[in-house]
């Protein structure tokens, strides 16, 4: 039990020391939700998975690390994300799979379509959360399609199973939504789901703001994963800006003024004047008033012999 819990929280990026300390305080039989809450309370921050697996091949950097090892083609963590300014992606696997299966079948192919869409955009930190009991053989009341995809994504360290177990024949399932929001919040990333997580919004005011600002909804159109071009509404950022940490704004292109030096609009002119500083453009009248004031001051101080 201790090893399975340790492995699970290590996959989320938490340090072994913090996990062991919490398990000692709460006991080996503590529920995963309780362990997660205690880690949050302690202020423990998840680190890059590669930093635990291959510390000798990494550079020490400010936020995480990047491995160049052959198995990590799609899963290079913080350093790669920092360089290309793309936000980490946390996918609500159950929500995506059920949406693709028309709320009747848990379609793992839908998860694969979503992962591939973000891969093609260049995102390197992608996590999918799915309850552990989805590994079990499908039942008639909960059909699963293309279940082998879950195994493939788990091998790529993209898919993480949230814990579940059976107690006296009844399944005890940990709240996977809390893992999704927690990891996305810690990573300053984006949540991919059509769920609004209203209960978690009420639970934590910081999470409420984060969910409102970082929830990316989507649709499936003929097996095509399609997020909206305006995730926060028509007056909000574009999809590209929404998925970027530091969106690069285009530099303004100034068009030369057709009137040239004869222009009398001064600082109200919308065109570019190479001959005058753009930030301190004055109209002809303003320049005359300024020159007159300077002359009057000089006369009063006796520093000028001629009258203005």
TrEMBL record:
- Assigned GO CC terms: cytoplasmic ribonucleoprotein granule; nucleus
What CDD domains has UniProt attached to this entry? PIN_Zc3h12-like
UniProt keywords (A-Z) are:
Endonuclease, Hydrolase, Magnesium, Metal-binding, Nuclease, Zinc, Zinc-finger
Cofactor(s) for this protein? Mg(2+)
Q: Which stretches make up the C3H1-type domain?
A: 251-276
Family to which the UniProt record says this protein belongs: Belongs to the ZC3H12 family.
Q: What is this protein called?
A: ZC12D ribonuclease
Annotated organism of origin: Indicator maculatus
Gene symbol of the encoding locus: Zc3h12d
């Amino acid at each position: 039990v201790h090893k399975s819990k340790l492995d699970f929280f290590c996959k989320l990026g938490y340090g072994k020391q913090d996990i062991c300390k919490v398990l000692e305080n709460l006991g080996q039989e503590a529920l995963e939700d309780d362990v997660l809450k205690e880690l949050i309370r302690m202020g423990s921050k998840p680190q890059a998975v590669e930093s635990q697996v291959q510390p000798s091949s990494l550079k020490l950097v400010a936020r995480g690390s990047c491995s160049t090892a052959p198995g990590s083609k799609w899963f290079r963590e913080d350093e790669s994300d920092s360089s290309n300014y793309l936000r980490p992606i946390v996918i609500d696997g159950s929500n995506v799979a059920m949406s693709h299966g028309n709320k009747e079948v848990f379609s793992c192919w839908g998860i694969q379509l979503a992962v591939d869409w973000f891969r093609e955009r260049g995102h390197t930190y992608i996590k999918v959360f799915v309850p552990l009991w989805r590994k079990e053989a499908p039942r008639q009341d909960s059909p699963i399609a293309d279940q082998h995809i879950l195994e493939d994504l788990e091998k790529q360290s993209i898919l993480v199973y949230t814990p579940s177990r059976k107690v006296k024949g009844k399944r005890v399932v940990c709240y996977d939504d809390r893992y999704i929001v927690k990891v996305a919040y810690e990573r300053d990333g984006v949540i991919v789901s059509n769920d609004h997580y209203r209960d978690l919004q009420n639970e934590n005011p910081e999470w409420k703001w984060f969910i409102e600002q970082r929830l990316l909804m989507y649709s499936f159109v003929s097996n095509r994963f399609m997020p909206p071009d305006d995730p926060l509404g028509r007056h909000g950022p574009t999809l590209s800006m929404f998925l970027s940490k530091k969106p690069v704004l285009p530099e303004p292109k100034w068009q030369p003024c057709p009137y040239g030096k004869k222009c009398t609009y001064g600082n109200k002119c919308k065109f570019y004047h190479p001959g005058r500083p753009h930030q301190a453009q004055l109209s002809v009248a303003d320049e005359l008033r300024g020159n007159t004031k300077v002359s009057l001051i000089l006369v009063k101080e006796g520093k000028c012999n001629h009258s203005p």
